[in-house]
Fold:
Amino acid sequence: MNNMAALDPVAPQLSWSDTPFASLRSVRTDARARLLAGYIRSAIDLLSGPDGDKLTACTVPRCVRYFVKVHGRQEFCQPSGGNRARAARFYYPQRADSGR
Ligand SMILES: [Zn+2]
Structure:
């Protein structure tokens, strides 16, 4: 992960108009490497930031998403997740017991 983040070394840039604005200036021209490195930097920021311990796997069967919990009882990545989980338990009760 760290190696992929290092694919695009960046330098912080300060812009000053009405208020100061910080951005990152890339030194590479390869768009794919810049995009991949940007995604990885965002993932590192999320995992190491204040919300990193709130990152949770969605419990809806066959859902592969993760989300940041905003309250303690949240189990699904979207509000309709509860309906999908109930439908899965109704139609496939043996699968719902196994989680996915
Ligand atoms: Zn989900």
User: Anything to note?
Assistant: Residues 58, 60, 63, 65, 76-77, 81 surround zinc ion (CB under 6 Å).
